[in-house]
Amino acid sequence: MWTLTEQHDVDGPIVYGYLRLHRSTPERQAALTVALAQYCEQHELQLCGIFSDRGTEPADAPAFAGLLDVLLLSNVYGVVLPTAHHLGGKHVAARRREQLNAIGARLLFVRGSLRTAASSAVRTIDYRAEEMSRRPDPDVPRFHIDLADIPQSG
Asked: What is the pTM of this model?
């Protein structure tokens, strides 16, 4: 008798992690690594490695260059980062996003999204229910909807 397909282990899409560890302790690096691994497990992604740069943010950081090489040479779904800040400062991050977009790699953030004019692909709507009534209420939840992965028609 055959088992159900759902009971077979299936490899998820392949992703690589990237960390920019400016002034980070080994404990913080370990915590960020665990966060990336947990995110990938929750979203059924296969984390094949994590590239880490230390120090300041030169645009030609060796680990980021290695990440680009891996993305060019293999069938990779995307790059997982703890936050958009790991891409670097404003100008470095914009350049790195362009490089990743040119390759066709998706950017997956464990937490938050980058909200800049240069990133028109990421649209974030923050809605505070208490603003509708004009009465601030700390018990009213704040909703966050990220529309970055919703295909746009037209």
From this structure: 0.65
